[in-house]
Amino acid sequence: MCTVADKVCTDPLHAGDGGWNQRVDRTFLPCSLETLLPQRQAMKLGSVDLTSSHRYPLGPIIVLVAAAAGVLLGLYYYFTPLTGITGAPGVLLVIGSSVALVLDAFILWFGGRGWLFGMFWVLGLLGALGTIIAAWFLHAWWLAAAIVFVFAGLIVTLAGPSQPRRAAA
């Protein structure tokens, strides 16, 4: 059942005597998930809270998953025989830079927006560029593909919302 709600607004700008002017706005509330499902089901459907306005930042999650894949692929290339780069010091460099990208993802996720965000975003971009060049020299194509996703995650992070995450009340 769709409803009409009254919203009382206090507006000091439109008050003639310097006091608070109250006006009533009638707002049409469209049919939503809460009206279609019982209240308990609307609040939690499985383990996902469908009525929450809280969203996880997609960019740092992409960076985190892709960089973790880079760490795992680097370990695979380092320890697996017959990969052509088994035991090579360049693979250790790639593993270290991928671990740094994982740490960068956490800083971008929880650091908020400001000069710290900008600095670690640029450092993440430079780290991803260096890692993809090292993967190119090592002929580790799957590792290079994983780092391309790190680049995509950094772009999504930059294009994300500018408001920092707030703690739950």
TrEMBL record:
Q: Which UniProt keywords apply?
A: Membrane, Transmembrane, Transmembrane helix
Segments crossing the lipid bilayer:
61-79, 91-110, 115-135, 141-160
Q: Which domain of life is it from?
A: Bacteria
Q: Which protein are we looking at? A: DUF4175 domain-containing protein
Organism annotation: Bradyrhizobium aeschynomenes
